[in-house]
Specification:
By secondary structure, this protein is mainly β. The protein is built from 1 helix and 18 strands. It has 2 domains: 62 residues; 281 residues, no CATH class.
Length: 356
């Protein structure tokens, strides 16, 4: 606030809106006789009706009152599930929708694509996690990069698309005909790619936000798919084994998928790459983990990457799906053919916040 005669202390700022029963005084210490600042109290902004004008005046310590100024209350932004924490108002989208911004402001975001599915054999690599893009100060984006710069957005409607998790191949064949990458998640101009699917027997993992793990083979290495810069890491390499071998782990937001390891007939699937933790909602939550690779006949499936990745399996067990709204990749492996389940990648998420 700019004016004159504010005095050294005891400046009373009054907020008045009669129809909303608002009549609130806040006492502040001016920074000088001509300048002062005041935070609008929660009892005002939580109770004023959008479109109503709040009348503001100041009274100095000598009891001299200013003229009044009217400020019209803007409608609050809409969309998603709305919470507040640490001075921020937070919109969490677990399904597609619209973020309706009613005033220009800086926003921070977390956008994660859908995790990927896997091939249909016990040797399959784990699914890659969905791409991870974050602009929260002090946190990280995927692939080992710093957080992106927060965006200043104008009042407008912004489309939010939540990427679905990719399906796994159910054919029981060596092909990846039915294995799918995760779908992209989008917030306005920000796109996080879906994860890359895990390769089945004798096939490479696919590229994506994070790459899928490579499948096993009996004569050569099959490699994980590449991750996308500033979104995620590559998948791990499948094993070489005359009986088949284990699959590589799917890449995660903070680490590459592990390679299959061990001896013939008992190879362990590679571990899924770990995800990243974000406190954008006020609580630390890890998301964007890769799926563990499939284990050989008497080997074990790869462990899931932290942050929603699925667990790999061998021929005597079943892999698990990525966790919904984490972008986690599906676990690879399991019985060949019709005896295995077909895990999906976890769906993505979009979270937006701004200072109240």
């Amino acid at each position: 606030m700019a004016g004159s005669g504010f005095k050294a202390s005891g400046l009373v700022v009054n907020f008045l809106q009669s129809s909303d029963s608002i009549d609130v005084d806040v006492t502040v210490t001016p920074t000088s006789t001509i300048a002062a600042s005041v935070a609008v109290p929660a009892s005002v902004y939580n109770n004023v009706t959008a479109g109503n004008a709040v009348t503001i005046k100041v009274t100095n310590s000598d009891g001299i009152a200013s003229n009044t100024v009217d400020k019209t209350a803007a409608a609050l932004p809409t969309g998603g599930t709305i919470t507040s924490s640490g001075g921020y108002r937070i919109h969490t989208f677990t399904s597609s929708g619209t973020f309706g911004l009613t005033f220009s402001t800086a926003v921070e975001y977390l956008v994660i694509g859908g995790g990927a599915g896997v091939g249909s054999r016990r040797h399959s690599g784990g699914g890659g996690a969905g791409g991870y893009r974050c602009s929260v100060s002090g946190e990280s984006s995927g692939g080992g990069t710093n957080a992106e710069t927060a965006s200043t957005l104008s009042a407008a409607n912004y489309t939010v698309t939540i990427g679905a998790g990719g399906a796994s191949d159910s054919s029981g064949s060596n092909s990846n005909t039915g294995a799918e990458n995760g779908s992209n998640s989008v917030f306005g101009s920000i796109t996080s790619l879906g994860g890359g699917y895990g390769g089945t027997y004798q096939s490479n993992g696919n590229s994506g936000g994070s790459g899928g793990g490579g499948g096993a083979a009996n004569n050569s290495s099959y490699y994980g798919g590449s991750g996308t810069s500033s979104q995620g890491y590559a998948g791990g390499r499948g094993g070489i084994n005359m009986g088949g071998g284990g699959g590589g782990g799917g890449g995660g937001a903070s680490a590459a998928g592990g390679n299959s390891s061990g001896s013939d007939g008992s190879q362990t699937g590679g571990a899924g790459g770990n995800g990243l933790s974000s406190s954008i909602t006020g609580s630390a939550v890890t998301r964007g983990g890769g799926g563990g690779g499939g284990g050989d006949t008497s080997g074990t499936g790869g462990t899931a990457g932290s942050g929603g990745g699925g667990t790999g399996a061998n021929s005597g067990s079943n892999p698990t799906s990525g966790t919904a709204n984490t972008g986690g990749g599906a676990g690879g492996g399991g019985p060949d053919g019709n005896g295995r389940t077909h895990p999906n990648g976890g769906s993505g998420i979009v979270i937006v916040r701004y200072l109240i």
